[in-house]
Amino acid sequence: MEVALAIVIGVLYAGGLYLMMRRNLIQLIIGLGLLSHGANLLIFTAGGLRKGGAPILAEGEKAFSALPADPLPQALILTAIVISFAVTAFALVLFLRTYQTLGTDDVDAMKETDT
Amino acid sequence: MILLPVLPIIIPLAGAIICMFFRKNRRIQQTLAVLFSVGMLAAALSLLMHVRGGDIAVMNVGSWPAPFGITLVVDMFSAVMLTLGSLMAVVVSLYAGFDLARGHIRFGFYPLLLIMMMGVNGAFVAGDLFNLYVWFEVLLTASFILLALGGEAPQLEGSIKYVTLNLLSSALFLAGIGILYGMAGTLNMAQLAQTVQEGGHSGLVTMVAIMFLLGFGIKAGLFPLYFWLPASYPPPPLAVTALFSGLLTKVGAYSLIRVFTLIFSTDPDFLHSLILIGAGLTMISGVLAASSHYEIRKILAVHIVSQIGYVMMGLGLFSHLSLTGSIFYLAHIIVVKTNLFLLAGAVHRLKGTYDLHKLGGLYKERPGLSILFLISAMSLAGLPPLSGFFAKFTLIMAGVQQEAWLMVVVALAVSLLTLFSMTKIWAYAFWKPAPTPLPDLQPIRPVAWIAFLLPMAGLTALSLGMGIFAGPVFRYAQAAAGQLMNPAGYIQAVLGGG
Q1: A62: helix, coil or strand?
Q2: Cβ contacts of residue B121 below 8 Å, gap of 6+?
Q3: How many CB atoms lie under 10 A from the CB of residue B151?
């Protein structure tokens, strides 16, 4: 399972970075999205994949009979998803506004501020 | 007393929310922003007093004990950054009332400023890595909007570069956090420090360290990751640029110093040498790029990069004295750099341009403004007896002590080139006669002008004071660096008994 997820993460990162290096703003934002999905899956995988149940003790129990799933990575990922959702929404508006103002979605044409 | 570390986060949040109620009224908004910034400054100052003796203030939010709950930690380094950050918020919100167009205020400049301060302060007090990430996102989101506020073409272009690279750096940072959690099973910085030190150094730790170096390096503007900075800092309204220059790259530098003294300090031969090389190249490339520009904002913005190089030089040398120099230098540039930007804004308010070729003769017209600029510029270049001299002197002493001769030569040469850039602004904008007489945009009454210059005069006085009373400042920085060099105190304060 880890190997499969590692490959998925690798593909997400590669795809994300490839898209970010394209010239189109839409591809840039899809690339950013893929990248953050890759990071989320990485946290999930690095946190350990277990088949245990929820880490909640039933009444009267003092210890877990089997090692439960680690809830912390999921909490981290949830936070990260919310953040990346908000940031992506903002980036979309920014890109739309840029397209309307500059009349282009080609990153190569945005060199005014570089010199 | 126990709630003290959370105040620098809560005060700006409350301020931002209350500001939102007065969207239409710029006067009330400004008064509120100044008041809440002053409150934030008061909280930061009382924290500074609290930790002055070498204590570390720790707060477990919701009383969940340390490695499990959210921990806020304030040591001397955090406290000094909190204080200076809040001071910049006060100064910039005072300044913004004069300088910003109505539209910027209506679209929420003040609430955004306060939200950004909340993120900045949160990053300074965060006691675990994931919280640091969240605070970074808070301050970044606010800064994205501030940067694009007004929506002019160069601003939007700059914003796209800034947004993209910062999201990339956040993704790297997040991935590093994930791998670190998989290795150590914790994200509490104190416990991580313990685990990493006990585990000795392994390849995986070094790899994660590099991910953090890249992530924070992009935010701090380290070579070769700083190329977004000259593109995105100059275009927005000057109040925004000044605030960013004083705070944002410095939060990156703060985080680098924090994680590379606390957690990744087991392999200084490789990691800190890498930082040192990066620091040298950062200084050189920043100062060379600056010398080719003829626009005040651009020159100052590119100089941010070379200043970050000095701070990182202290981290790279990794000794008590060099970290003292880094902290001193950070304090010095936060004050001086923000002040220089604000003074450039004052020039723009008078003449409507930042172009050195068009400006001239300002010394004759406005001697007060010119003197303020001269003092700050010379302080940036590092002339005694100003604050920059002692900060650079400490760093160079540390370099000599460790026989890092190449670094010492680079630091001195870059200092000389900084002097060149600053005298260039001085000679072109203030000294030479104007090529074509440039009338004031609109007449300003002398009283209003003096009120406008007051915040800048305050910052200049602070910079002078840091130079004249360099002894106490140095001793404070030394004590703060002592805490950083000896993480056992931090670990014990957080985990208790450890």
Answers
A1: coil
A2: B8, B9, B12, B40, B44, B82, B85, B86
A3: 15
Half-sphere exposure of B241 (CA within 13 A, CB side): 30
Percent of chain B with pLDDT over 70: 99
Query: Is B372:B340 a contact under the CB 8 Å cutoff?
Result: no
Please spell the DSSP secondary structure of B452-488, one letter per residue: HHHHHHHHHHHHHHHHHTHHHHHHHHHHHHHHHH-HH
Give tens-digit pLDDT for B105-119.
777 889 999 999 999
What residues make up the domain containing B93? 4-495
Q: Which residues of A touch B159 (CB under 8 A)?
A: 94, 98
The 10s digit of each residue's pLDDT in B392-424 is: 999 999 999 988 899 899 999 999 999 988 988
Cα B124 to Cα B74: distance, rounded to the nearest angstrom: 8
CB contact under 8 A, B235 and A47: no
Instruction: Give the angle B168-B172-B178 at the CA atoms, nearest 5°.
Output: 140
Q: What is the mean pLDDT of chain B?
A: 87
Please list every residue in chain B whose beta carbon sits closer than 8 Å to the beta carbon of residue A100.
Answer: none
Indicate yes or no: CB of B153 within 8 angstroms of CB of A102.
yes
Interfacial residues of B (vs A; Cβ cutoff 8 Å):
130, 133-134, 137, 140-141, 144-145, 148, 151-154, 156-161, 163-164, 167-168, 171, 174-175, 177-179, 181-183, 230-232, 234-235
**Bond preceding residue B5 cis, omega within 30 of 0:** no
Helix (H) or strand (E) holding A115: none
**Domains identified in chain A and CATH numbers:** 2-50+71-107 (1.10.287.3510)
A94 to B182: CB separation less than 8 angstroms, yes or no: no
State the average pLDDT over residues B2-31: 88
Lowest mean pLDDT among A24-38, B173-187, B441-455, B466-480: B441-455
Per cent of chain B over pLDDT 90 is: 33
Q: Between chains, do B178 and A101 touch, taking CB under 8 Å as contact?
A: no
Q: What is the mean pLDDT of residues A68-75?
A: 84
CA distances from B332 to A48, B28, B136, B258 (A): 45, 32, 23, 19
**Would you say how long chain B is, in residues?**
498
| Helix locations, B52-108, DSSP H | 76-99, 102-106
Map tokens 């985080």 to a residue. B255
Confidence at A107, pLDDT banded by 50, 70, 90: confident
- Domain total of chain B: 1
ipTM of the complex model: 0.91
Give B177's contacts in chain A (Cβ within 8 Å). Answer: 43, 76
| Per-residue model confidence (pLDDT) at position B498 | 42
